């Protein structure tokens, strides 16, 4: 099977949930928005210039996605991760953060299976004390993000196709390299 076919297979592989539902779950762990707070990032690194909360929510989504893939071998959500300068993001979340952050939901109201809620909750509580720079660094360590950013910068094709492709090599990275974090976080 050639690389294009493998990429097409990945793109047709659907996640279990919508990124919106996973974002709602993550936000429900921070009902007073002390973590997913407003306020702009300190430096404008790219055109998105998200709020601190939007940045953190997208990093948490990316981390949950990678670690879920590491544990279960399949995507957590069906939306594409996009390779932006500050790390991976889900465009729908970037554009709807303010509306999402106003929702006041309890974890039990979120339509996610209990086992997956527990997994995502452990990841959130494990990573929430990391600095924004550490979250960004973790996102940048994803070889799918690196490969996509290199392609985008090389082709100067900034918004044509910045979808991160989860190749067999990336799946191996998620499984082998990130598996220890799943165990450390107690999410195994």
Question: What's a concise summary of this model?
Answer:
The chain has 188 residues and is mainly alpha-helical. It has helices at residues 3-12, 19-28, 52-72, 91-102, 114-127, 132-140, 143-155, 168-177, 179-184, and strands spanning 82-84, 87-89. It has a two-stranded antiparallel sheet with strand order 1-2.
Tally of discrete structural domains: 1
Q: Going across the biggest sheet, name each strand in turn.
A: 1-2
User: Oligomerization state of this entry?
Assistant: single chain
- Beta strand %: under 5%
Catalogue the unreliable spans. Answer: 1-12
Number of helices: 9
Report mean pLDDT, rounded to a whole number: 83
Radius of gyration: 16 Å
Please give the share of residues in helix.
55-70%
- Structural class, from secondary structure content? mainly alpha
- Compressed to H and E, one letter per element, the order equals HHHEEHHHHHH
Main pleated sheet: 2 strands, antiparallel
**Number of E-state strands:** 2
Report the end-to-end length measured between terminal Cα atoms.
Answer: 32 Å
Global shape = globular
